[in-house]
## 1
Amino acid sequence: MAHVILKDLVKTYGPVYAVRDVSLTVNDGEFVALVGPSGCGKTTTLNLVAGLIPITSGDITIGERVVNDLDPKDRDIAMVFQNYALYPNKTVYNNVAFPLQMRRMSSSMIDQKVRDAARMLDISHLLERRPRELSGGQQQRVALGRALVRDPAVFLMDEPLSNLDAKLRVQMRSEIKRFHQDFDATIIYVTHDQLEAVTMADKMAVMNGGYLQQYDTPAQVFANPVNLFVASFVGSPAMSLIPLEVTTAGGRTILTSAEKWTIELSDQNARKVQGATSRKVVLGARHSAIRLHKSQVAGSVPAKVYTVEPTGDVTFVQVFLSGTVVNISLPPTFDVEPDEQIWLAFDQNRMHLFDGETELALQ
Ligand code: ATP
């Protein structure tokens, strides 16, 4: 396996910047997810690494080589696509063997590699079938097998689970994670699904508008989103983001809403908002960091219940607060009704604060 280094990578299509100045290092054996909304540039980034499209500027290094000008076949990569791209008329055996046959490897060597890969991926009993005789998950494993036998330096995966139904997606998520662990594979994995990135990857590269927004472990990205975009993109239900204004009075720092309810900040949070470029800040809170009260308690602010969604283990409640929808989670035994007047209290230790102008996290 090998590391991959992207340095100041740019891809333009006429005036459109698909990828802007993306720099990141994928360490040897690391699983990195490129994640972001549609059009953010993640597929373009993957295709640049694969060599399927030429770069506009910057450098791509795989292992010890700068591969900018190398053909895809010379980059020592294997791709696994959304539609698996299996040959419909070939058996599973021949689908997996195909890249080795193209390399004119001896048939005894091919046989050994195909059977080894089939055993590791638990598809030995399917080798004589054709792709149409397989389930989605089995086809996925065949596609992984075909990538695996090539013994590449890097696996590139583009939304490999998006054609599967919800249950199979979850199952294949753990299979790909297991694949990564078993083979110490360097994997770059494109997905629009933040949950897939959070659950599978060692690191996630969150992209928006062609820019790399944040590159870190899922735990770090979740705990310390660097800006409003990352805060709103990572986590489900989404982090609630409430625009407020900072005022100070008698040494106290207070956040005030358009409706004039207020939250007095702890010393630590007060220090953070001192770094804001204007009086506008955005308060961010994850669903579990907000407490719902049936009556007013110290530090709570008035709000109204919008919807109540029981899921069994936990009930998600959406609440209107100053024209913003706030997500809260409650134990299923908590009794609350739509349109009910309630009060919310924010946990100051788990509060996020963002600059209302620059949208950057206030540290
Ligand atoms: P999706 O999840 O929808 O595939 P993505 O994040 O992978 O989106 P890209 O496909 O990388 O996004 O596209 C990034 C930007 O580049 C988009 O604005 C897209 O319209 C533009 N783009 C991509 N390919 C081309 C092309 N061949 N010609 C012109 N613009 C393109």
## 2
Amino acid sequence: MHNEVTTYDFKNIIANFKISSGNFDIKPFGSGHINDTFLLTTEPGYEDAYLLQKINHFVFKNIDGLMNNMLRVINHLKEKAEKAEKAEKAGRPAKETLTLVQCKNNKYYCQDHQGNYWRMTLFLKDTQSYDLVTTTKQAYQGGCAFGNFHCLLCDLDPALLVDTIPDFLNIEKRLDSLTIAIKKNSAGLVRSVRSELFFLLERANSMGEILQLGRAGILPLRITHNDTKFNNILLNQHDEVQCVIDLDTVMPGYIAYDFGDAVRSIINTAAEDEKDLDAIQLNMPLFEAFAKGYLGKTVSFLTEQELKSLVKGVLLLPYMQAVRFLTDYLEGDVYYKTHFPGHNLQRARAQIQLFKMLESKKGKLTDIIQQEWLQLK
Ligand code: ADP
Ligand code: GN1
Ligand code: MG
């Protein structure tokens, strides 16, 4: 069972890491759909606290490649932060990046006797992540966080990183998987989702644009995060950005994917899996604030073509999530953690609804980006 403290031999797992031994209190932590995360503490004030994560080996087949990516990116971010701090000479603390804890075998991950893979990071205390964004300050800070992330990594060669999940955001492959799931119909559920399938498949051809522009060399491949859900940013107590987290999917990609996935989780007034479709509305001021923050950090290097692609990403990402959730539903919930039967279908329906709303506001979204850009230029 996922996230059950009693399932794992924590004493032996923790003993692999170079930390002083202690009597840790261990609690499941966070609301991610893929990995299992545990908070380890010895003191009430979190002075000595770590996050221990079981990396989902079913999803990530190349753990060594993944951890090498993560280390390379973290080191690059830390070098940049140190340089910035020296240049400013103001003693302003560098923005935090994740810190991996080394294992006694000098790697940054270990395996337990059940074959599970584990890694540990320092717990950044006095931070929080949000599943739902409610203020323009949070949205603006989110824009700054991901914009800065792209900016700091834009001089690192994407070829140095491996694809931790091949074709992760390749919509053509995602649609192929949906088609296979429909044909197999292993859980016998296809008839019950005919209208959702019809809606998604009707739009399939128009969704490959970013991929085609990339293949044609019109959009550059950069190092992108590829999972820019808002809860993958840590904010401090004043809602200022502290750190971009969840670096498992950092690999070569297109900027529009990250912009689109962040907007997906910011602009929606309801949860990603909202049951009441009428509750799913667009909060345009949050979009404006996010775009302002993001473009402010990327104006120096973003190309005209990338700028134009941002709205395409805003439509593509909820669409792709709907395809992915529905595929998992048809396959019998083998990929995402689910909390009740039909959860993946509920998620897919919510993402389709969000996509419909975004489609109807495409012109407005484009205007906002254009206006923010002109103000910065
Ligand atoms: P998942 O892959 O399950 O989404 P994350 O790496 O995003 O895992 O971590 C899950 C949650 O744990 C995050 O949303 C955040 O709230 C919290 N978190 C992750 N890393 C840290 C950290 N270093 N310090 C404090 N909180 C963290
Ligand atoms: C998963 O791990 P988490 O919850 O941050 C998924 C993302 C999806 C997201 C949808 C490796 O992210 O691609 O966008 O769920 N991660 C992976 O909420 O598949
Ligand atoms: Mg996460």
